[in-house]
Amino acid sequence: MDLNQRQLLLQAVFENAPLGIAIADSDGRFVEVNQAFLDMLAYAREEALTLSFIDITHPDDREETRRLSDEARLGKINSYQLEKRFVTRTGEFVWAIARLTVLRDAAGAVRYWLGIIENIADRRQAEKERQQMAAQVQQAQKMEAIGTLAGGIAHDFNNLLMAIQGNISLLLLNKEPHHRETTYLKNVETAVQRASELTRQIVGFARGGKYEVRITNLNQVLAKTADMFGRSKKEITVHTHLEKNLWSVEADQSQIEQVLLGMFVNAWQAMPDGGELRLTTTNAVVDPNDHQKPPDTAAGRYACISIVDTGVGMDAAVQARIFEPFFTTKTGGQATGLGLSAAFGIIKNHHGFITVQSQPGRGSIFRIFLPAAAQVPPPPPPPAQRRSDKTAHTILIVEDEEIVAEIGMQMLERLGYRALVAQSGAEALALFSQHQDEIDLVILDMIMPSMGGGVIFDRLRSLKPEIPVLLSSGYSLNGQALDILKRGCRGFIQKPFNIEQLQQKILEILTPGNSVIR
Ligand SMILES: Nc1ncnc2c1ncn2[C@@H]1O[C@H](COP(=O)(O)OP(=O)(O)OP(=O)(O)O)[C@@H](O)[C@H]1O
Ligand SMILES: [Mg+2]
Predict the structure, then answer these.
(1) Architecture of the structural domain at 394-510
(2) How far is the centre of ligand 1, averaged over its atoms, from the C-alpha of 339 (Å)?
(3) How many whole angstroms separate alpha carbon 371 and alpha carbon 230?
């Protein structure tokens, strides 16, 4: 091969190489660059030939580039490799691996710099996405574990509270209103209520606990809550902007109100010197690749509520922890740090998600996404049966916790009902088949060992399809309660309940024509 031909071939290799290649003189100024180099940095050849390696290096990477180049110039090294950012003609930066080799003259001085530059922007991007995904999965697992723990505690705790509340209700019934011990008992009752409020929030965080689900227009829920809130907090201005044709969602309205109020209070607390609270509803189609969407939620149609404040904002470290139960930055002992963790749990139970954007001093944007409902109305539940041939109704209470069963029975008797008690699924079915003509209502605990509330419910229904069932629980596993409610159960009562609440639920169900939960 003659020299000419060889040069032509090498020229072709240079121009067609998929890597950027640039040759610079001893000052670092380019004398030869190939097409891949020009494409990567969006320069025309003439422009590129007026520049040096330092000119196209990102300011933050210049120092390291200079250090290595000096070592090469001094002869300490003959080549180096550096992962760094180059700046394109339009000012964007591109991640690349630069491999620099020094070509020296006979005296050992730098004659040329040969740079081979590999664009790794795609690799860096993929790596970043993988890390984000891993962090999200880890966050989801952490929340899941806390949820399971919180749920377990809430269940046992509510049964204990039920026992305390029940005994107090019974004691109070025996006391004159002005008896001196009445005050003490009322104090205990207040403490039980506060404890149950705390568990309610924890259960909100845990899975389950979404009981009164209806087709809901979030505009109404938002307007109502905002109105209530705005009237009590004059120092901030509330602006509401509602999407006219907002998609409906399936939601437990009082839980959504709890979420919104918690967030409004947070916003208000973040604006101690006053400010603006902007509330907006929109329809949103969430893309499968949307990076804000947690991995365990579906893509598709969502109704979205944005809550935007002009308050103190949060840094990234705080943002990473705000949904953890008991995480709070508020001092003074008033805050429990349960607001957002309950919100997280509630929205997750609704198969939705919450996103947050914030910067210190720049306010915060919270967005709640709830999946749009399919447009089919639920089937109406069967009407309540009323027996006219006797005065006292008979109620079967199915409850595995002996102490709770006992209290339940005594409360029912105090209310003038005849009570039957079963402490297991098998016992319940036996009692029910024996007395099914007399039994007007079954109060069913949902979590029972061996035979779950759902199975008992179905068996009772197969014995007598119209029998009304009132579900009771301190906590629902995996949305079981909702499932049973959807199968035509007549209502739900949350433990711990007092005698008045029990009476009210029973009347709601046994009074004909009452509307019920689906
Ligand atoms: N709108 C907001 N602006 C700034 N920081 C917020 C905002 N909302 C929440 N935070 C931060 O998130 C933390 C957790 O909020 P969360 O509602 O769970 O608990 P809390 O408000 O501290 O206590 P609690 O709600 O139980 O009274 C807050 O302490 C605060 O640091
Ligand atoms: Mg709060």
Answers:
(1) 3-Layer(aba) Sandwich (3.40)
(2) 7
(3) 27
| CATH architecture, domain defined by 133-205 | Orthogonal Bundle (1.10)
Residue pair 421/402 in contact (Cβ under 8 Å)? The answer is no
CB 82 within 8 A of CB 65: yes
Q: CA–CA distance from 91 to each of 37, 109, 425 (Å)?
A: 16, 33, 72
Please give all residues whose beta carbon lies within 6 A of any atom in ligand 1, as ranges. Answer: 262, 266-267, 270, 309, 311-314, 318, 322, 327-330, 335-341, 364
Q: 67: pLDDT confidence band, cut at 50, 70 and 90? A: very high
Could you tell me the fold of the domain covering 213-371? Answer: Heat Shock Protein 90 (3.30.565)
User: Residue 30, SS3?
Assistant: strand
Token digits of residue 327? 């995480």
**What class, spelled out in words, does domain 6-119 have in CATH?**
alpha beta
Q: Which residue has the tokens 């939960």?
A: 517
Tens digits of residue pLDDT in 312-332: 999 999 998 999 888 999 987
* Closest residue by Cα to residue 399 from 362, 442, 356: 442
Q: Which tens digit of pLDDT belongs to each residue from 421-438?
A: 998 888 999 999 999 899
φ, ψ of residue 207 in degrees (nearest 5): -70, 160
Q: H-helix or E-strand containing 186?
A: helix 180-205
Whether pTM exceeds 0.70:
no
